[in-house]
């Protein structure tokens, strides 16, 4: 009996958006209007690439970025929740599927000593170039019309489950914890026995309730959370059963 926990990262594990937080490193802690207005829907990774070039051009180095990123607060109750999951790893496999990037997530998890809680992290690959600029790439290519160009979270979850099945691992239940519009696609893939946990007041919760109003509700159960202690209460019930 094993459960799979799938976490989004921004506004779920941490209480901010790591990509917008990095702007604190910019001169005057803001971006020029031209750059800020250059974002096109579905092309966030390319936009962040331009932000990282701007930061690099202004002499922002890795150590300054790292210092800034590790000041992001975790969501209320999240530190206790991740500690609880870490103590019960024989019952929980735990992955992150995020539109952030490998460098930011790595820094934040390692600084808080939560790296070992997660079995895998699926996010946009990032590295520092020889000249010290952070570069980020799309996670994969996909054919899903609903998702941003760089990442379809449903595809990630499905491929992870297929790979686990090949290794003889299947899950009693999938618990999907997220907040954003790009979390809807994987939630719609979940089955009747699974559970979606959207963060209260965020886009994912609104989209799920809109589907219910349109009489095409998601198949899985839905449990809204506002603090990670709500998630922990649910997981404690799960393992009692």
Q: Summarize this, please?
A:
GO terms for molecular function: metal ion binding; phosphatase activity. With 241 residues, this protein is of the alpha/beta class. Helices cover 38% and strands 16% of the residues.
Explain the overall architecture.
- The chain contains ten helices and eight strands.
- It has 241 residues and is α/β, with parallel strands linked by helices.
- It has a domain at 3-15 and 74-124 and 148-239: Rossmann fold (3-Layer(aba) Sandwich).
- The strands form two sheets. It has a six-stranded parallel sheet with strand order 3-2-1-6-7-8. A two-stranded antiparallel sheet has the order 4-5.
- Helix 5 packs parallel to helix 10 (228-240).
- The mean pLDDT is 94.
- This is PHOP2 phosphatase.
- It holds the Pfam family Put_Phosphatase.
- Belongs to the HAD-like hydrolase superfamily. PHOSPHO family.
The coarse silhouette is globular
Mean pLDDT across residues: 94
Number of helices: 10
What is the CATH class designation of the domain at 3-15 and 74-124 and 148-239? Alpha Beta
Features:
241 residues, alpha/beta, Rossmann fold, two-stranded antiparallel sheet, hydrolase
Topology:
Layout: E1 3-7, H1 18-21, H2 33-36, H3 44-57, H4 62-69, H5 78-87, E2 92-101, H6 102-111, E3 120-124, E4 126-128, E5 134-136, H7 153-166, E6 173-178, H8 184-187, E7 195-198, H9 203-213, E8 221-222, H10 228-240
Parallel strand pairs: 1-2, 1-6, 2-3, 6-7, 7-8
Antiparallel strand pairs: 4-5
Helix pairs in contact: 5-10
């Amino acid at each position: 009996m094993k459960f799979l926990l799938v976490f989004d990262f921004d506004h779920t594990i941490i209480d901010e958006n790591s990509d917008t937080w990095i702007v604190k490193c910019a001169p005057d802690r803001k971006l020029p209007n031209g750059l800020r207005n250059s974002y096109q829907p579905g092309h966030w990774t390319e936009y962040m690439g331009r932000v990282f070039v701007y930061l690099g051009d202004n002499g922002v180095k890795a150590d300054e970025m790292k210092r800034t990123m590790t000041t992001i607060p975790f969501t209320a109750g999240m530190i206790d929740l991740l500690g609880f999951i870490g103590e019960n790893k024989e019952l929980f496999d735990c992955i992150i599927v995020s539109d952030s990037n490998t460098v930011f997530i790595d820094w934040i998890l390692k600084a808080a000593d939560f790296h070992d809680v997660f079995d895998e992290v699926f996010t946009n690959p990032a590295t520092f170039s020889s000249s010290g600029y952070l570069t980020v790439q799309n996670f994969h290519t996909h054919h899903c019309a609903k998702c941003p160009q760089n990442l379809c979270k449903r595809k990630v979850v499905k491929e992870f489950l297929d790979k686990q099945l090949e290794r003889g691992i299947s899950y009693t239940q999938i618990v999907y914890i997220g907040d954003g519009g790009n979390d809807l696609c994987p939630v719609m893939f979940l089955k009747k026995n699974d559970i979606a946990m959207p963060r209260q007041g965020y886009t994912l919760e609104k989209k799920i309730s809109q589907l219910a109003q349109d009489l095409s509700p998601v198949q899985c159960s839905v449990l809204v959370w506002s603090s990670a202690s709500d998630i922990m209460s649910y997981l404690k019930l799960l393992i009692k059963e």
